[in-house]
Design a protein that fits this description.
The complex is a heterodimer.
Chain A: E1 10-11, H1 13-18, E2 25-31, E3 46-49, H2 65-74, E4 82-86, H3 88-103, E5 109-112, H4 115-121, H5 151-159, E6 164-166, H6 170-174, E7 198-199, H7 215-223, E8 233-236, H8 241-253, E9 259-262, H9 265-269
Parallel strand pairs in A: 1-5, 2-3, 2-4, 4-5, 6-7, 6-8, 8-9
Helix pairs in contact in A: 3-8
Chain B: H1 7-18, H2 22-33, E1 59-65, E2 68-74, H3 80-93, H4 98-102, H5 115-118, H6 124-144
Antiparallel strand pairs in B: 1-2
Helix pairs in contact in B: 1-3, 2-3, 3-6
The chains are: A alpha/beta, B mainly alpha.
Chain lengths: 286, 145
């Protein structure tokens, strides 16, 4: 079987089990569910929370560089720590945290394949004990703009007819739903998708056991829809979390050199005055 | 508290309101931990919606016995927040009348103050569960007519 393009960014549960006491490794749980970590987590793992620890407390943005440095310090993460991310729901929010760590230039990052569900399914140990690590002195880099797209970038992308991947569910893509089922507060004024985007729901990249599909299956999934490695690609969803999952797949598992995550996503675009929108199923292949 | 809530639910809401910060999460976690195993005879109502990707799949059944409602929920263990919400609803609304359920204000849970520690987005699950429960209560009333 062919390998992923950058296998060093992915680890299996067994690797994590063997590094529980490794002082150079920090395991970080990042979940959609706010209480899941409290019910039990991988021994030694610290928690980040997408809503309450990784976002700016007031404006719509991520932590500032200084706040990110303070966060890393409080989690005992130094610049050369290997940080391993895992979480619930096929690593949905774990990969978002991974993306943010890359944004601020943290080099040694890994995602645990299969996420929390696989660790639990393998009957590996969990604890409710919350660890504490001595604070570090952490120096973040300036934000890496090459992995983040803003609305003006997206507008240019449309004009240049470059590919966009919309990773939301088909009904959000078509415009039938204004928000993800069950998430009414993350809605938008208008439904539909960014003109020219292809709809490849993020979860198609994982198997039933939550692990990423094989390189062959992933290549087929994206390339058959015109999402090929020679292109400049922007992925988006509703708030940028599901699309960071697809960003990871394209960049690290398939080795695409130019992929950005548009974290403003539909909650920005669908509320933006004058922004072009396409309704319906769109072009399924290009 | 001026909300028109069934007595047990009113108590729960006020318990949460009195907790500060992190204590609110501990209390919600207590409810999640007390979430009961699914009864052997559990049958999700046929209307129970199959929830698409991303959202926690919640199934429920509602039974009307002698004019009083009883709710049973099925929520996966890996969603303790939603389990906590479901447990609050089960405990707060069991043995209530459909009229009582229908008179609960749609945003009664804001009084609990969980939005301060969980963020507003994470309260969507509670809103969805309350909407399900009210729909069942309305159906129970229609059948009784």
């Amino acid at each position: 079987m062919a390998e992923y393009a950058h296998p060093e960014f992915l680890v299996e549960t067994e690797w994590v089990a063997q590094h529980l006491d490794d002082p150079n490794v920090r395991i970080v749980e990042s979940n959609e569910d706010a209480l899941l970590y409290d019910t039990g987590h991988i021994p030694g793992a610290v928690r980040v929370d997408w809503f309450t620890t990784l976002q700016h407390p007031v404006r719509r943005d991520f932590l500032t560089k200084e706040e990110f440095e303070a966060l890393c310090s409080s989690l005992g993460i130094s610049n050369d720590t290997t940080v391993v991310f895992y979480g619930d729901k096929s690593n949905w929010f774990a990969v978002y945290a991974f993306w943010l760590f890359e944004y601020y230039g943290h080099e040694k990052r890994k995602v645990m394949n299969g996420g929390r569900a696989r660790w639990v399914a393998e009957n590996r140990p969990l604890t409710t004990e919350v660890p504490s690590y001595p604070p570090t002195v952490y120096h973040a880099k300036e934000p890496d703009a090459s992995i983040r797209a803003f609305r003006d970038d997206v507008m240019r992308h449309i004009q240049e007819r470059l590919p966009l991947v919309d990773v939301r569910s088909p009904k959000e893509f078509s415009g039938e739903l204004l928000h993800m089922p069950g998430y009414p507060q993350e809605g938008a004024q208008r439904g539909g998708h960014i003109p020219g985007a292809v709809n490849i729901p993020w979860a198609q990249a994982v198997d039933e056991d939550g692990r990423f599909k094989s390189p062959e299956a992933l290549r087929e999934l994206y390339q058959s829809r015109g999402i090929t490695p020679d292109k400049d690609i922007i992925a988006y969803c509703r708030i940028g979390e599901r699309s960071s999952h697809t960003w990871f797949v394209l960049k690290y598992l398939l080795g695409y050199p130019k992929v950005r995550n548009y974290d403003g996503s539909w909650t920005e675009w669908g509320n933006l005055v004058g922004a072009p929108i396409e309704k319906g199923e769109g072009s399924s292949a290009s | 508290m001026s909300l028109n809530l069934p007595p047990r639910l009113a108590e729960i809401v006020s318990d949460f309101a009195e907790c500060e910060g992190r204590e609110k999460l501990e209390l919600l976690l207590d409810y999640a931990r007390r979430f009961p195993p699914l009864p052997a005879d559990f049958n999700a109502d046929e209307q129970a919606e199959d929830v698409p990707e991303c959202m926690t799949p919640v199934r429920m059944s509602a039974k009307l016995v002698n004019g009083r409602l009883n709710f049973v929920f099925d929520v996966p263990a890996e969603s303790p927040t939603v389990r906590g919400y479901a447990m609050i609803i089960m405990e707060g609304l069991n043995n209530t009348t459909p009229e009582e359920v229908l008179s609960i204000p749609a945003e009664f849970y804001l009084q609990m103050g969980l939005q301060d520690v969980l963020t507003a987005q994470r309260l969507n699950g509670m809103a969805a569960i309350l909407a399900h429960v009210k729909r069942r209560a309305a159906e129970a009333l229609e059948k009784a007519d």
